[in-house]
Amino acid sequence: MNNQGSIVNIVGVGGRTGNAEFAIGGAVNAALLNLTKVLADRGIKDGVRVNAINPGAISTDRLEIRIKKLAEEDGMAFEAASSQMAEQLGVKRFGKPEEIAAVVAFLASDQANYCQGTILDVDGGQTKTL
Question: Rounded distance, CA 116 to CA 20, Å?
């Protein structure tokens, strides 16, 4: 395939597993995963690699706000709320933005030249589906 470029969609683990609290977001994420596969199929002909990453809980301002809210609601320290949330998600820790960036860089590089329609869960083991 003559490589004309690379697309890396950043989606989210909610597209793989249903959750009543994330019904709309999960449906949108599932659609984006499907779109990744469709564009990857088209990309073979056009020379564009299309792949996706499903991040789990990543240490961002958004996650920090969720943890602070949990801590306030349950009357606990931030660290305790953070540990509780990680445990509920089934992970040892939250991911770091630079870990997601490294996977994006890999999928966009020539080292991933054989990846087409690949969907990587980068979630610390949170996703239990196949």
Answer: 31
Report how far Cα 126 is from the mean position of its chain's Cα atoms.
Answer: 10
DSSP letter, residue 122: E
Residue 49 parent element (H or E):
strand 48-55
Check: CB of residue 127 under 8 Å from CB of residue 19: no
Read off the pTM. Answer: 0.90
**What whole-number distance in Å separates Cα of residue 70 and Cα of residue 66?**
6
* Alpha helices in 6-94, H assignment, sequence order: 23-46, 61-74, 78-89
Tokens representing 86? 């990680």
Q: Tens digit of pLDDT for each residue in 55-104?
A: 999 999 999 999 999 999 999 999 999 999 999 999 999 999 999 999 99
